[in-house]
Every structure is written in C-alpha cells, then in structure tokens.
Design brief:
The protein has about 350 residues and is of the alpha+beta class. It has 13 helices and four strands. The chain has helices at about 1-20, 30-45, 60-75, 75-90, 100-120, 130-145, 150-175, 180-185, 190-205, 245-260, 280-285, 290-300, 315-325; strands at about 235-245, 260-275, 300-310, 325-335. A four-stranded antiparallel sheet has the order 2-3-1-4, with helices on both faces. Helix 1 (about 1-20) packs antiparallel against helix 9, helix 5 (about 100-120) runs parallel beside helix 7 and helix 6 (about 130-145) runs parallel beside helix 9 (about 190-205).
Length: about 350
C-alpha cells in the first residue's frame, strides 16, 4: 500500500501538466493535475517518518486510514477531495487484514465509489465518479465469476478488470458531459483516477505501469494544446476548510452551501468526537442521570472537510462560522490556477 501511494505520487507528478491542460469541468481552471498530485503527495507523506510504535503491523486498512486522513486534511480542489474520500472509504473494509484479495478489493472499491458519490451534493456522471464506479463494478463481477477466490491470481485478474473498466469509463466521459464533448477531450479527474488505479495494479502485482494505457485519449497527446487556457474565465472562488459539526449541523451547512454555490463536497475526517470529558460522563453515570447521558450522546460531533465554489467568499465563510469554528480555511480564485509552491490559505484571501 505504501509502494502504491509512492508510485501514484510520482506518476501524477509526471502527468500533472497534461491533466491540467484538459481540465475544463466543473470549471476551466487547469489545476486538476496539480490538486491530485499534491493530495496524493500528502497521503504518501504520512509514512515519511517510517512506522510508529503504536502502528498495527501489516494492517492494510490501518495504513490506508492513516494515509486517507492525511490526504483529507490537505486535500486540494474537487479532485483531491474526492481522492481523499476514496482513500478513507477504501480503508474501512480492509481494517485488520494483512493482505489484499479479490473479494476485499471488490468490497473496498464498492464502498469507496458509494462514499465518493454521496460526498457530493450534486454528483455528475462523466467524471472520476463514473470511472471509480466502473472499476468497482468490474472488480465485483470478476470476484463473483471466480466464486470469491482469495488467491493472488484472482487478485491480479480483478485488478486488471478494474483498470480496463476504468479506461473504458474515461473514454466515455467525453460524450457524457457537454463541455468535454464540445472541446473533444476526456475528463481530467477521470484520467487521474485511472492512473491511480493502474498504480495500484502495478504495486500489488509487481508489474510495470502500462505506458500505452493513455494512448489515443482525446486531448492527452503531448502536442495537444492546453484546452483550459482558451476557455472563458470562471468567476467566483473555491472555499475549503475543516470543521467539527454534529450530523444535524453538517446537514444544515450542506443545505446552506448548496443555496450559495455549487460543487459542494462534505466528508467526515476521522471518527466521532464525543462532547464532554470522560470524567464528566462518569460522574453523571454515577448519579444515574440517563437524560444527561442521552444529551451528551446527541452532542457527538464529527470533523468534516468542506469544499464549495461560490461567487464570493464572505457569505460562505459567514455561514460556516455561524455553525462552528472552522480551521484551515483557504480561498482561491477559480480563474487563477494556484501556485503549488504556496501553502494552503495563501492562494487568495486568508480568513
């Protein structure tokens, strides 16, 4: 798993310019390649210091959960946020397992595609969501055909099926979204997810990446122009932050952000945060005050990663602050690709 993330970081770094060149949906800001690369780099960097004393040994799910949380904390843009959601969800069915198998791969990919679709308020076919869905379906069908065989050979077949289905889905994106069809290009995020899945196949099977995988994809040849550069500038800004909210408050925030803008993505970061200290809960239990226990449980909150595109930042930031105390707020102009050399929060206004 660590080799996969390292390979994905290198691959997306090599392909970031071409991914940026065809990035015109949902906005033509030419930063999908950069966003995916920086987010994957954050995931891979979670292991830069080596294993810690309390890290479970050979726990596939624990490794991916740590990487997913790191990615979520530093996610960039739509594509980076969805990759972080994908990684966190992928980890869940793999917790406690020491190796990947075809049945586990199918279950994990299916969990990831469901979670990615649900993270968006208005998910759209023809994006990396469709690519992930196709890969999950193919892995599931392959696993079913082999009756849940958990051998390495079956895993190889399932990975091959997932990557091939992802490629087919990338090709189809051009005809699923009008802006892509008009520009005669495939979806940048979809290509990025295809590369990530091929890196997984390569790392697990010990095989080389498929250099010919992207041959013939419209807009992806090196001599092709930067399509996004010729598109009209998109007004508005991208607002991102992390915030602790109860499920009810999170639903309220999603609704209000939907009213203010679009491309709303909200996903949980980590597990529940229980209101009140353990000693306080214990004292109430000693007193036999069940009502207080119920109230305390109802106040449990979760940390959320929030992403939205809005005409102006101030109303969105005000709504977010009205419901909680956000951290890591960053605001970026959609019409100006971000400089990857700048830390989060310095790509425009800092709140």
């Amino acid at each position: 798993m660590k080799r996969w993330l390292g390979k994905a970081e290198t691959t997306l770094g090599n392909h970031s310019d071409r991914l940026n060149a065809i990035n015109i949906f949902p906005v033509a800001d030419g930063d999908t390649g950069t966003n995916l690369y920086l987010t994957v780099r954050s995931a891979a960097a979670a292991f830069a210091g080596g294993s810690t004393a309390d890290e479970p040994v050979n726990d596939v799910g624990a490794v991916l959960a740590a990487a997913g949380q790191a990615a979520m904390e530093q996610a960039r843009g739509n594509s980076g946020t969805l990759f972080a959601v994908f990684l966190c969800a992928l980890a869940e069915p793999l917790a406690g397992h020491t190796r990947l198998s075809a049945p586990l791969l199918a279950t994990a990919l299916n969990r990831a595609q469901i979670r990615a679709w649900s993270a968006l308020s208005e998910p759209v076919p023809g994006t990396m969501l469709s690519v992930l869905e196709a890969a999950a379906r193919a892995a599931g069908e392959c696993d079913t055909a082999h009756n849940g065989d958990d051998s390495n050979q079956a895993l190889g077949l399932a990975l091959d099926a997932a990557v091939n289905a992802a490629l087919d889905a990338v090709v189809q994106t051009e005809d699923q979204l009008a802006p892509l069809h008009a520009a005669h290009v495939v979806d940048a995020g979809g290509v990025g997810m295809l590369l990530i899945l091929d890196c997984l196949r390569s790392a697990v099977l010990g095989e080389e990446l498929q250099d010919e995988l992207l041959d013939g994809l419209h807009g992806y040849d090196l001599q092709d122009p930067h399509i996004h550069a010729g598109m009209p500038d998109d007004d508005g800004v991208e607002v991102m932050c992390t915030i602790s909210l109860s499920p009810l408050a999170a639903a309220t925030l999603r609704q209000r952000l939907d009213e203010l803008g679009d491309s709303v993505i909200m996903s949980q970061v980590g597990s529940a945060i229980q209101a009140g200290s353990a000693s306080q809960v214990g004292s109430r239990n000693d007193a036999g005050d069940d009502d207080d226990d119920d109230e305390d449980a109802a106040e449990a909150s979760y940390r959320w990663r929030v992403h939205v595109h809005v005409p102006e930042a101030e109303p969105a930031v005000a709504v977010i602050r009205s419901l909680g105390d956000p951290t890591d707020i960053s605001v970026s102009q959609l019409s100006m690709p971000r400089d990857p050399g700048l830390p989060a929060g310095q790509h425009g206004h800092e709140y």
